[in-house]
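Hi again,

Forgot to attach this to my earlier email, sorry! This is the prediction with adenosine-5'-diphosphate bound. I've pasted everything inline since the attachment limit keeps bouncing my files.
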Amino acid sequence: MEQNRNRKDDTPKNGGKRPKGNIWTTLIITVAIVLILSSLFSAISSSHYTETTYSHFLNAMETGNLAEVEFQYDRVLYLTKEAAALPPAQQKACVTGLPAGNVMELAGKLDAMGVKVNQVITEDNSIIMMILSYVITFAIFFLLVRTVTKRFSGDGMMGMGASKAKVYMEKQTGVTFQDVAGQDEAKESLQEIIDFLHNPKKYTDIGAKLPKGALLVGSPGTGKTLLAKAVAGEANVPFFSISGSDFVEMFVGVGASRVRDLFQQAAKVAPCIVFIDEIDAVGRSRDNKFGSNTEQEQTLNQLLGEIDGFDSSKGIVCLAATNRPEILDKALLRPGRFDRRIIVDRPNLQGRLDTLKVHTRKIKLAEDVDLKKIAQATAGAVGADLANLVNEAALRAVRQGRKAVNQDDLLVSFEMVIAGTEKKNTVLTDTEKRLVAYHEVGHALIAALERHAQPVSKITIVPHTSGALGYTMQMPEEEKYLQTADELMTELRTLVGGRAAEQIVFGVQTTGASNDIQRATALARNMVSLYGMSDALGLMAPASVNHQYLEGQAYLDCSQETSALVDQEVKKLLERCYEDAKAILSSNRELLDEIAQYLLAKETISGDELMAYVHAKDKPTEDGPCADTEDFEE
Ligand code: ADP
Ligand code: ZN
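Structure tokens for the complex follow:
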């Protein structure tokens, strides 16, 4: 499906300046409007009067047939008595030229005859008035036409004429690589594009083909748009951005014309960066099982044609972002199109720390702020989450009337992002409170007693707006990329520890453990079907992962028998962990009671307080991977 459009380049290299033709069009349109209006106006006004001869006027005067007279510099308007007798809407005045002479004398004479003389203008200012009125009308219309045409084709936001896709052009993004924390691999891959935009000749001289496009792939909020802007900023070229979903319209052909417009606009200001966000909206594979979609196909064809058509030596680089690279049409990924794939990963510990640093650059921080702690607590968070966290913290500081953001602000806003704000007015009965306390201590105690668990940093039974009635927060001490089977088993035991405590202490099962159970099940299912950690299936992975960058769900692609076996194994694994958890808690029943009482009294306790109790019982503890929180849900 090859389209090779040889586009004629008729756009002068004026470095992004507004084309001069624009002013002339505006002028011509204005002149036309003013001329049309003035001729219309004079046509209307002349139909108001009946042109007569001067002798008709004299005759009417002598026969006493005049009702009203108005002298203007070189003409006289008058109303005969017959006309004056008609109803006002039908009255039509007569007009005739006025020979040079003593107008004042004539006026005096008419006055004496009892004719109403309305106005006497003896000086000739009609020409000045006329010119003035033309100039003013012209000016008004000129401004009007200019604003209207600017709307449709001016700088800044472009409405793109008839098609109203939102193309944003920024002459200077003002964003540089310094504003993008981490993502070193991505920056390195993009460096070449920047170098090329700076100095295309270096590449063309040697005969090298320049990259036309690169695909930024990564989860939402990891900074793909930011990176694209930074490329434009570093290369100091204009930045066009449009979202793939803007191309998709009900009407066949609209998307294609928008694509054409976009590249036309870009060609005018090249070198520049064209950024297409969510390219999967247009670039979806054409041979999907839902049948074809003519509009989307046309748009995609146009896009492919444009990418092939533009001459990259002019310096248009097309960047696109997606979080579902696997659904893109193969044609888009062919050499010469988006053949470079740049992975924009979720940040690791150092990346998160850098992101926090970037976003706190302009924020006043109190002495006690320890960004490293926050970075440790936010495993799995993307740049957008961290930016949000910092902003929430700053807002909290303002609300409390402080001049700087302190560690507490950051911690509270972190909790808010994961658990919602504290909900002070949820009233729990005493029994409920005791249940929640034991449930949370159940989680915490298992984590505290196990070798492979992550240290507990906080336990609370203050309800939160997210619906959690309490939670246990665990914080890893270092970033880990691998988890052993033992660590995962510990995580499972910690997750079911809440339910185990309810069962042991109260002999009941509550709905509060539902979130824990869902997460434990998901983890156990992954262990069995993806990680090869079950005896029955061994190294066989009956599942595959879809949409890796959208927290991809694993789906089973295996026989029904295997699928049933997976379910059995998951159940066995969970049962084993549950029994273990109950055993651990039963043998530490005193400790469980003590800590639960303390938590009931204080509502929130820190990891250190918890460990003080545990150490008093003289149990060894160790650290483990990956942060987590356990919810007790309503
Ligand atoms: P995406 O396009 O991948 O969905 P964005 O580029 O729109 O994500 O990121 C949203 C916001 O998150 C950015 O405006 C920025 O404030 C913040 N952000 C994301 N990643 C980073 C990063 N690596 N460094 C600094 N800020 C980041
Ligand atoms: Zn729980």
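The pocket of zinc ion (ligand 2) is lined by residues 439, 443, 498, 513, 516, 630-632 (CB under 6 Å). Residues 282 and 300 are 6 Å apart (CA to CA).

That should be everything now.

G.
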